[in-house]
Amino acid sequence: MANDPLAEAGFHFDDLNKLRVLDPEVGQKTSELKEECKDFVDKIGEFQKIVGGLIELVDELAKEAETEKMKAIGARNLLKSVAKQRDAQQQQLQALISEKEMQLERYRIEYDALSKVEAEQNEFIDQFILQK
């Protein structure tokens, strides 16, 4: 009962019979809270490590996705370029075909004219031979 006036004054004895200002029950709860806080901080640290690893992984995947995206854009541009080259080549070949067709028509007309001249000359030769 001698502790009661001390307890009322805010003084308490701990397990080692040392005089304390803090109530032993409050001290115990404070220690428990301190341990819980330490566990919480440790878990937060682990969580931050896991999240940091996840962020690094996502960053790597984003870089790989960007690289693949650039490759795809390059391939698409190359394909467009090849298609344009093919169209240009097709137009060139079509122009060459038109030119060769016109040349063929000129040769056909020239052949017809020469055939006519040949026929006329053969007829002239035949008449000349018959007149002798």
From TrEMBL:
Keyword hit for Coiled coil: yes
Superkingdom to which the source organism belongs: Eukaryota
Any one annotated GO CC term: cytoplasm
Subcellular location field: Cell projection, Cilium
Coiled coil: 79-117
Keywords annotated in UniProt: Cell projection, Coiled coil
One Pfam family named in its UniProt record: IFT20
Biological process terms in GO annotation: cilium assembly; protein localization to cilium
PANTHER family named in the record: INTRAFLAGELLAR TRANSPORT PROTEIN 20 HOMOLOG
Name assigned to this protein: Intraflagellar transport 20
Source organism per UniProt: Muraenolepis orangiensis
